[in-house]
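Tutorial handout. Part one gives the primary structure; part two gives the three-dimensional structure as C-alpha cells.
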Amino acid sequence: MNQTHEQHDDRAVMVAKARTGITGLDEITHGGLPAGRPTLVCGGPGCGKTVLAMEFLVRGALEFDEPGLFVSFEENIEDLHHNFRSFGFDLKALIEQKKLYVSHVKLSRAEIVEAGAFTLDGLFVRLEQAIQQVGAKRVALSTPWKSCSPVCRARRTCAPRSRVYSSGSRRRA
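Part two.
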C-alpha cells in the first residue's frame, strides 16, 4: 500500500492508498484509491463502472496478491466471464485459484414489495461469507443503474456498513 499526502490548511495528512494497477489511474489519484474506505463510482449505463471495478479486482489479485469479491446485481457469472474475456481477463481461472469470488445476486422488485420491509442484512451475511472464503481484500458491488440514483440513497444505505467491506478492513461497523 502506498502512502500519499493530502494538503488541508497547510497540514500534511497521510492517506493510505490501495494501488489499482490500472494504467494512469494510480498516477492521477496519487497512488490509488483510499485504502480501508469505500469508493463510490457513479455514472450512466455504459460509462465503465463495472469495467473499472472488475479491473481493480483482477489487477489486485494478479499484481498485488489481494483476492477480490465481485457482486453483480444485473449480469450473471457467464456473461461477466464472456465480457471480461475480451479484456484478456480469465475470470474462471482466477475463481478456480481462489483469487476472485464472483456472485450474482438477483433482486426482484416484486419479491421486495411482497415481503414488505426490506433490509440488506441477508446480503451482508452473504458478502461476509464470500469475503472469508477467498480472504478478499478488495470488494466491488455492481448495482443496477436505477438503484444508483440518487447518490445520497446509496450513501445512506452503504454508510453504516462501509468499514466492513472496504479494502483492507474487515471489521464490523
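Part three, for discussion. The mean pLDDT is 79. The chain is about 40% helix and 20% strand.
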